[in-house]
Amino acid sequence: MDKYDIYRSPLEGRYPGERMKKLFSPRIRASTWRQLWLWLAEGEKELGLPISDQAIEQMAKKLTMTDHDFEIAAVEEKRRRHDVMAHVHAFGQAAPEAAGIIHWGATSCYVTDNADLIFLRNGLDILLSSLAAAIKELSEFAWAQRDLPCLGYTHGQPAQLTTVGKRACLWIQDLLMDLRNLERARSDLRFRGVKGTVGTQASFLQIFKGDHEKVEALDKIVTRKAGFDSAFTISSQTYSRKIDVDVGHALASFGATCQRIGGDIRHLATFKEIEEPFEKEQIGSSAMAYKRNPMRSERMCSLGRQLDNLAQNPVHTYAAQWFERSLDDSAVRRSTLPEMFLTADALLILLRNICSGLVVYPAVIQRRINEELPFMATENLIMAMVAKGHSRQDAHERIRVLSHEAAEQVKMHGKDNDLIERVKKDDFFAPIHENIERLLDPSSFVGRAPQQVEKFVGTDGEVQMALSKYQKVLASLERSEIDK
């Protein structure tokens, strides 16, 4: 059947990057199972079990699943209705000297769960490096725009001024929290290790004839070979599904940040203050040729919502487990775990592409400031009059009257805000007429926003401290591009 005649998930062919798609591919999964069986056999041989050198050599040469191996496993699974045992038989055919010792003492979750923990670890490593790159790129934008005043908004309404760079720092601060969350989830991971059918290691205790020290040594050997510092002392047949919950929460929190950032950029695009990158031949609308839709930010909000929804599955799956294990976790985890990581990877590709190419329109920003600044400047005008020896109450009343007159022109007649012109023509304010332009300088309304940006993203700031461990990987990452 042609590939265009069957459903394909967008997470396979459209949004995520190649590294993440490869990590969760059938070949990597099955080959990781084989690697786990080799590590187990090597550990058992090292501790005295009768496993030949030829068995180890054949296993080591056949770690990568071939297309032919997959065909053998498919036939075996149809016959045996057990995916792990199908792969045991397929591996045994590829390494016949090892056929009798593959999976010795293990249960299915030795390969399935330990492999999943490896995928969680490696997937988090991919995400962390990409997230660090996104933070770096957005920090460069914040630094470049740290002095550019713009309207701040509370309740969706114009408030005091901030700067474009300071607003970007709000996004960066949330991304730093995501970085810490993902780092914590990564550091909390431990190996399931060699635990047997219900986590008691009974089968291995039998194999080693009651030698507890050898059972613990085998656990440590395999854990070390898998690249983990430690294994769980306590497990059931599976590692606790609480691990999936914690990882899912960290990913969902990142997805929420992407929705927040995407929403802000979409609103700013509506105001025509800032736009995401727009390709030379990109089409915004099939009907309205003039449009420049923020499709990347919209997609980011959409996938962020999807990630939040996916992360609910581990919560419900963990809550539904019975005793040492029930198999109702299997089918949902097969799709949920890869899709959470693929979705997060797709979000980071979008985020990096947007952050590295944001377009700012200072003239539009200034025009919007000019529409609101006269009202914002009234307190400055009043204080300036007081400094000249006039009554604050008299100045306040006069400003109130002129403000209402100007507001009527804006709201009732659609005219520009002419409050400042009215102040300039009013003899009451003659003592400060020569200082009005200085009092209206937007940079005087942004407080310490530029200095806050410099402290936050500058040398030895919070951002640089958080990214210090990623310097080598950041140097090797290329600019993020999206194909579709």
Order of helices and strands: HHHHHHHEEHHHHEHHHEHHHHHHHH
Which structural class best describes the helix and strand composition?
Answer: mainly alpha
Q: Reading side by side through the largest sheet, how are the strands ordered?
A: 1-2
Number of strands: 4
The low-confidence parts are 285-290
**Helical content band:** 55-70%
- By DSSP (H or I, 4+ residues per run), the number of helices equals 22
Return the average pLDDT rounded to an integer: 93
The proportion of residues in beta strands is: under 5%
Which descriptor suits the 3D outline? elongated
- Main sheet attributes: strand count, strand direction, barrel closure: 2 strands, antiparallel
CA-CA gap between termini: 25 Å
Radius of gyration: 31 Å
How would you briefly describe this protein structure?
The protein has 484 residues and is mainly α. It has 22 helices and four strands. Helix content is 63%, strand content 4%.
Question: Would you kindly provide a written description of the structure presented here, covering whatever features stand out?
Answer:
- With 484 residues, this protein is mainly α.
- The chain has 22 helices and 4 strands.
- The protein has a two-stranded antiparallel sheet. Strands 3-4 form a two-stranded antiparallel ribbon.
- A hairpin with a 2-residue loop joins strand 1 and strand 2.
- Helix 5 (67-80) crosses helix 6 and helix 11 packs parallel to helix 14 (330-355).
- It starts with 9 loop residues before the first helix and ends in an 8-residue tail after the last helix.
- The model is unreliable at 285-290 (pLDDT under 50).
